[in-house]
Structure prediction request, 600 residues.
Amino acid sequence: MKALFYPYLQNLQNLITKKLEHQDHLGRFEEEIWERPEGGGGRTRILENGAIFEKAGVNISAVHGTLPPSMQTYFKVEKSTFYACGLSLVIHPKNPMIPTVHANFRYFELYNKRGTLKDQWFGGGLDLTPYYLIEEDIIHFHQCCKNSCDEFDPSFYSTFKEQCDNYFWNAHRNEARGVGGLFFDYLKQTKEISLQDRYDFVTAVGNNFLNAYIPIVQKRKDYRYTPKQRMWQEIRRGRYVEFNLIHDKGTLFGLKTNGRIESILMSLPPHVQWRYDNHPEKNSEEADLVAVLEKPRDWL
Amino acid sequence: MKALFYPYLQNLQNLITKKLEHQDHLGRFEEEIWERPEGGGGRTRILENGAIFEKAGVNISAVHGTLPPSMQTYFKVEKSTFYACGLSLVIHPKNPMIPTVHANFRYFELYNKRGTLKDQWFGGGLDLTPYYLIEEDIIHFHQCCKNSCDEFDPSFYSTFKEQCDNYFWNAHRNEARGVGGLFFDYLKQTKEISLQDRYDFVTAVGNNFLNAYIPIVQKRKDYRYTPKQRMWQEIRRGRYVEFNLIHDKGTLFGLKTNGRIESILMSLPPHVQWRYDNHPEKNSEEADLVAVLEKPRDWL
Prediction:
């Protein structure tokens, strides 16, 4: 599975970065190949100060080695070695009318002390963080998520949509990070579902990412916006930072396994503001967004 | 002690906010009195968009109630009730030649199930986070810290200076948050030192805060700076956010005890940037700062 999935991710990274560059005209991805001292490494690609994308990171990595004690506790296992590979992307557009998007596709293997494979699973998903509620865009994104799911199991979309709302919950703010999408983890083989079936599902979701996001970019990239709307975007980006640094398990895993800091923290937005006790005006478009974040909606 | 220390903090908050307003001419503190549903409350004072201070928060609070399970584990105690009061301040000046400063003075009481006092201690300190190394300012700040300590115990300064360097260590970046100052915790009564002695020490440090910081503000407030220097300040502020959200125990305590979010997160800087893999040029002033942060120095 390692030999199958990592090449898939390499190819997906190529596809996505090419498509984003094509959209942006101006911005170009810079690539960095890095190695992890304890085993493995990755290929980081970052685009900054594009015409459309203010900051975009599309990274892949495959790391392996001894599982740190804290992660042993987390996975409830004894001394183990592990293999993990994944693609992570975060795109922060300049225009506040285009949502921020995040996606992740990952595969994990755990081995016992003698190196015997003990467990293996897929995880991942994609989710949208708008600054203004343009409902048709959110519905389009969720429809794409549902389409990827429905060919596999009619229950997948509603299950993984709910898990996404639960996972990206900014508990200390009592609101969601964004309007969700899909989140799945520990997708293991069962009696009915083979590991190949899991691979087929995760790659189907991966293959559908560009369909879910790029049409939104194309529709909104020439929308005008005011300095006040840009300020709102920068304030909301602050909530994105709070989620990623306080709650996100992926960030935590990266920091605990001595991952490459700059690749992990590429998710942080380029320009951010924190204002004291900022609240949108009643009945404003900003208030509409907050209402939806406080009470996640069924979009389809 | 509660009846002695909280009025002291109320008075110190008045002194500090008055002095800061006097320095700033333009900016004025807005006050918010808040109550904690589980017991207690506080008085938050925030100044935004001043002439000198871009964002400054000087908050006091006194909270009490049942200790949350996570904090029981942290303090290694059984089911307890607690009382905690403190003053916390963070000042983010606009001009990158003026350092950011943080100070905290706090007092804690723990009671067993029947309400009997089981433990009580003081904690706190002050520390400086410059964006450019103006050595005489850092030496002045540390000299004030030492002066506050020396009248009590000749070992205090070196002990609490080292604890400060250790505490404000941004482990995932392998660098200090700033150039330190003092950090002390669990200052309890001993055979030789009474709780009143502890009070005398902590209040002496508190009384010396304005002497440590205001002369630096006065000296540097009219220094010119370039957009590039301002950008450097905003990038370094990102490291401040990372420390506060990933490592800071005070922030954690506030979030876990259902503290007032806006008062806890007032510490976050107003305008912040994250750029991918940003490093200062060799032999630049920015590189000088990073060198000191990577290897904390003895300033006196």
Observations:
- Chain B touches chain A at residues 30, 32, 46, 48, 55, 57, 172-173, 238, 241-242, 245-246, 255, 261-262, 265-266, 268-277 (CB under 8 Å).
- The domain at 2-294 of chain B is CATH 3.40.1500.10 (oxygen-dependent coproporphyrinogen oxidase).
